[in-house]
Amino acid sequence: MKKTAIAIATLAAALGAANASAQAYIGGGVSATRINVDCDGIQSCDKSDTGGKLYGGWGFGNGLSAELGYITFGKATASDSGASLDVKVHGFTVAAAYRAPIASSWGLTGRLGLASLKTKLSASAGGLSASDDERHTAPYFGVAADYAFTPALKLELSADFSRAKYDGEKAAVRSLGLGLRYDF
């Protein structure tokens, strides 16, 4: 939690120091997600789902910007002999981003930062159910390619990655999405 507070304070300071060429933007989209939980010996296991993200940023010029966002990595489901377990991962991100134009209407963006993720487990067996969750901070990174319909509106194909954690166990999470970005 302390790392997240430091990252947010750093982002706020950077936003406050922005010059007149700064530009705000927002974006969001839907994605195909995967939570790489260990399913060895499990009768039925589905690690893929649908997720999404929303984000906003502040560009400082020369392609560099700071972003805040919310991302959901969907759900993984396992079941065996009448028992089932669902694992959901979602949270907030803070990142530095760099967008480089590669052609007149095309660009590439790289993101690097931290994610404050909540991993929630829900289990049921024999008519009984229980759930628990854990929040942690993990590295977050992403890449995106975009196509500009207009100078303000871009179609973005993105890939975002982090790591879920619960009770000492870790699982890689990823999101492959399609969305829109609007620059103000």
TrEMBL record:
SUPFAM superfamilies per the UniProt record, alphabetical: OMPA-like
Keywords assigned: Signal
Signal sequence annotation: 1-24
Domain called Outer membrane protein beta-barrel: residue spans: 6-184
Short name of any one Pfam family annotated for the protein: OMP_b-brl
Subcellular location: Cell outer membrane
The keyword Cytoplasm belongs to this UniProt entry's keyword annotation: no
InterPro entries attached to this UniProt entry: Beta-barrel_OMP, OMP/PagP_B-barrel
Flavoprotein found in the keyword field: no
UniProt-recorded name of the protein: Outer membrane beta-barrel protein
